[in-house]
Amino acid sequence: MNPDDRKYTREHEWVVSEAGADTVLVGITHYAQDQLGDVVYVELPAVGDAVGYLAKMGEIESVKAVSDLFSPVSGRVTEVNGRLAQEPELVNNDPFGDGWMLRVSMSNPAELDSLLDAASYEEYIGQL
Amino acid sequence: MTTDLSPAENLRTTLYDTHVAAGARMVPFGGWDMPVQYQGTIAEVEAVRQAAGIFDVSHMGRLNISGPNAAGLLDILLTGSASDLRVGRARYCFICNERGGVIDDTIFYRLSDDEFLLIPNAGNRAVVVLWFDRQLAQHYDGRGVQITDRTMATGLIAVQGPQAAGIVDGLLEDFSPGARLARNPGREPQPSLLRPYTWGRGHIDGRRIFIGRTGYTGEDGFELAVQSSDAAFIWGRLTQAGATPCGLGARDVLRLEAGLPLHGHELADTITPIEAGLSRFVRRDGGFNGADVLDHQRVYGTPRQLVGLTMPGRSAPRAGYDVLADGAVVGTVSSGSYSPTLERCIAMAFVDAAYSEPGTALQVDIRGRAADVTTTELPFYRRAA
Question: Residue B263 domain-assigned?
Fold first, then answer.
């Protein structure tokens, strides 16, 4: 269920490297969207903002609760998924695809090595 | 009489396995494991507003209160009159302490001259039973009232929405009302002829049903009490007839849109019904616990008042957030959510009475950001007549 091509945080974000670029895409996992329920609002940094490794990068709000979002890597935001403003339900319907949140230019790619792979993340959520 | 005081583990309703098999997500609530959602809260809210939804509300209590002193005891314990309530009818009111604080809010049904069915909230059932026992000892020397906790022996299913009446009419056989029905020249008695806050009895495929025209969603609807062992079957018949299974997430949004209070949020033993704007459910002739305080508050007002708040956007004020006027704290949010029906954020809050006038511009501190809100009358949503 969790794609093998990317890394995961214990806060349920994913990060995937883009072929031929030093940028990554960032989003939240299926498990996270399922726990949240219907997403109604996503607050994200702006293009050009810095994000920090496992530091708060925004907030996600469902009908019943609000949660912090954490960046899996440090770097600079190069693009924000503008569709989420009008269609926050993309996070529920396609968390690993159209529901992506940020494109980030990494400042320290070695950070990826410290994140969980799909199998470890699977094991981690199995214990929650 | 027995009741669970402090169960080591959460209780499960008789429909627990049905919820899990249907893929519902279960969460703890009021000492029970309950479904918070099936398909998704927004879709479930829409189903109830536009068609029909069903809710497992078996976590709420079912207390049978009977005996020659039952009406007399309830008159002392409830803000609504029991002895004035005719057989076949039901009433919403409060169980108050001597300070006028709300121990619980409840709907009670008069089954016969000396028998009532009272529905306390899930998390308050044990407290209510203890309170009733103590008050019975104090006022009637412990005599003339039997309190029987029927919660675990029965299931309770709410069917709510504009199509609820059609669904229960189609399923219920040999329906007999507890009180006179709405005018029905030439028609067989059926549940859709029940007036609001009345009840009847019938069968679904030979299984006994108690049905009240009550609910907690702001829509037309019914609540069905059944034998515990029949609940899963009845639930199945209702879903086959087109009712959408709904969880507590949808229930909370629906009741908030309809401006209905939730104990622990808009009501508590430190909050009076007058503060919560619910004086219409408090009788004026006194004689019940807390009457003096509530009469005084009705006449002279209260320092704080419950108001509705609305704001554009989707980032909602949540319970516990501060309400601000010119940067100073003037109140606290009691419940808040994005409203899928109204497509904006809504909240209820207790504010200093000086700021309670509808149309007052205030702010809510949403995690450090002062968001503009406007006070408004409740409810936020009222169904078309």
Answer: no
Q: Please answer whether residues A27 and B325 qualify as being in contact, where contact means their C-beta atoms are separated by less than 8 angstroms.
A: no
Domains of chain A: total:
1
CA distance B276 to B272: 6
Q: Pick the residue from chain B with its C-alpha nearest to A93.
A: B40
Do A37 and B40 lie within an 8 Å CB cutoff? yes
Domain that holds residue A95: 11-126
User: Which residues of chain B from 206 to 265 reach within 8 Å of chain A, CB to CB?
Assistant: 249, 252-253
Contact A21, A29 (CB under 8 A): no
Q: pTM value?
A: 0.94
Rounded mean pLDDT for each run of 10 residues along chain A, 128 residues in total: 95 94 94 95 97 97 94 98 96 98 96 97 95
**Count of domains for chain B:** 3
Partner residue facing B314 (CB), from A34, A40, A64: A40
Domain assignment of residue A70, yes or no: yes
The values of phi and psi at residue A44, to 5°, are -125, 160
Closest by Cα among A62, A86, A32, A95 to B249: A62
Interacting residues of B250 by C-beta distance below 8 A, sequence separation 6+: B37, B41, B44, B45, B48, B53, B55
CA angle B121, B127, B130 (to 5 degrees): 130
Domain identity same for B160 and B204:
yes
Q: Does A68 contact B at CB distance below 8 Å?
A: no
Cα–Cα dist B47/B337, whole Å: 18
Q: Which of B149, B177, B203 is the last residue of a domain?
A: B149
CB atoms A63 and B42 under 8 Å: yes
CB contacts of A31 in chain B (<8 Å) are none
**Neighbouring residues of B373: CB distance < 8 A, sequence distance ≥ 6:** B309, B310, B311, B317, B323, B347, B361, B362, B363, B364
For residues B162 and B239, membership in a common domain is answered with: yes
Distance from CA of B28 to the nearest CA of A (A): 14
pLDDT tens by residue, B224-271: 999 999 999 999 999 999 999 999 999 999 999 999 999 999 999 999
